[in-house]
Amino acid sequence: MPADFDGSNPATRWARFCDLLWYDEGLGLWLDVSRMALNQRDIEGMQPAFAKAFAAMAALESGAIANPDEQRMVGHYWLRTPELAPDAETAGHIAGEIDRIEAFGHQVLAGGLQAPGGGTFTDVLWIGIGGSGLGPLLVIEALQAEGQGLPFHFIDNVDPQGISRILGRLDDRLGTTLVIVVSKSGGTPEPRIAMEQVRARLEQRGGRWAGQAVAVTMVGSRLDRLAEAEQWLARFDMFDWVGGRTSITSAVGLLPAALTGTDLRAFLDGAAAMDAATRAAALTANPAALLAASWHVAGHGRGQRDMVVLPYRDRLAVFSRYLQQLVMESLGKKLSRDGQVVNQGIAVYGNKGSTDQHAYVQQLRDGVDNFFVSFIEALDDPADIPALAGERPGDVLEGFLQGTRTALMESGRQSLTITLRRFDARSLGALVALFERAVGLYAELVNVNAYDQPGVEAGKLAAASILDLQGRLEGLLADGAPRTLEALGQELQTADPEPLFWILRHLSANDPAYRVSGSWAEPASLAFARV
Ligand code: PA5
Predict the structure, then answer these.
(1) In the chain, what are the domains?
(2) The one catalytic residue among 61, 97, 190, 329
(3) 449 CB less than 6 Å from ligand 1?
C-alpha cells in the first residue's frame, strides 16, 4: 500500500516509488507515478469507476458504437491487432493495407516507381492538418534515420507564406516530389487549398500531377473520387472508424515510416504490446489506468492542472504537440455524454528537456502550482557521443532530469516519469498506445465522448460563413462606390461590422485596388472603395 504523497519526506518518497512503480520487461518501459498525489484512498475510491471504464474499453474494442454522436465504431486498436476487428473482412482489409503500404514504400525507395518525368523520387511533400499532419510529423521527427529514405516536407496549414516557403524549398525538385494529400473526410479546406496551390505550381512547370500524387482518405470521399477519376499514383484508405488524432497506426503514420525505411512492423508491434498491457483490468497493474487516475486526482477530475510534457530526447520534442492534440481534442468537451454542461479537458503543453529548464521550468518550480509534469526519458545513448574530460552528455541529461524532478518535488509540485529502455520504432508505438488508452479511460471517468470534435466542426462552419461574407462584400464593392463599415453592414444585412473591418483590412493590405480613407485607429471613420 503506497504511503501518502509528501514531498518533504525522503523515506516516504522511496516507499511510494517502490510501491507504485510499473515495469514491463517485454516493453522495456517503466512508469513512475509516485510523485503524483495519487494515494491509496484514491486508488480504492476509484475502483468502481475503473471497473466501468475497463468494461467500456472492452466494449469499444469489440466494435460497440463508442462514438455515438457520429454513430461510429472506434477501431484504432484493431490497426495493430487486425484479428480483434469485428469481422474477418475488416481484419483482412487492415492487414492488406499494411502490406500495400510496405510494398509501396519499397517500390518508391528502390526506384521501381518513378517520377512522371523520369528518375527516382527525391522528396515527399505531405499535405494534411490536425490528425492528418501531426502523427506523420512525429513519425518523421522521432524515427527517420539520418539520410535514410526520402526527405519529408509538411504543409499543415493554409498560410500562404508557409506554402510559398515549402514550394521555394522544393523548387526544381518539385517534379520529382511525391505529393501525399491526406484528409480522412476528404473535404477539409486547408489541405484542399494547399493541394491546389502545389498542383498549380507543378503544372505551370509542365509537371504531370496524377503521376506523382497520392491520396490518403476514406473510400468514396471527395478527395478519393478525384484521385480515382484522375488515376493518381496511389490511394490508401483511412477507415471510417479511425479518428484523425488516433490515426498514427493507419496509413497516416505507416506511409511516412515506409518511405523512410523505418520498421513499421516494429512500430505496430510496440503499440499492440502496449494495448495488451493496458487491457489489464486492475488499476495498479495497468499503466494507462495509473496515468488516467493520476491525471484525475491531480486536476480533481475537472482538468484543474495542466499536463506539461517534458521529453528528455530531442527527437520527441514534437510529442508534446502530438499529445496536445490527442488529449485536448479528445477530452476538451462542453457536454458530458448525457448532455450536461461539464466543460471538461486537460491543457497540454511542453517541448523538451533540458532545454525547457532554461525557460518556463522556472515558473513550474517557483510560480503558480497549476500543473503536473510528464517526464519522458530513454536510456540508450548513441555510442558516438563519448565522455569527454569525464563528462558524458547522456549522464548530464539524466542528471538534469532527476534534478528537476527532485526540485519540483521539494516545492510540492507533481510529476510522473516514463522511462524507455530503448528509443526506437517499437517503443514509440508503445508510448503512443499508452496515451491513447489513458485518454480513453480518463474520458470514461469524466463521462465525455473522446472521439468526436464538435468544436473543430464549429470552427470550420464559422470560417465558411466569414468567407461567404467576404464574397458578398467584394460583390458589393465592385461598383467602385466608397462606403463606411456601417453602410456596408446595413447593405449586407449583418448586425456586426467588425468582421467587415477584419476582411477589408486584409484585402486592402494585399490588393492595391482597395482605397481606404479615414483612420485605422478609428474604425467607424473608415470608408472603403474598390477602384
Ligand atoms: O483528429 C481529428 O479528427 C481532427 O483533428 C482531424 O484530423 C482534422 O480536422 C483533419 O481532418 P481531415 O483528416 O478530415 O482533413
Answers:
(1) 10-71+269-448 (3.40.50.10490), 76-262 (3.40.50.10490), 455-530 (1.10.10)
(2) 329
(3) no
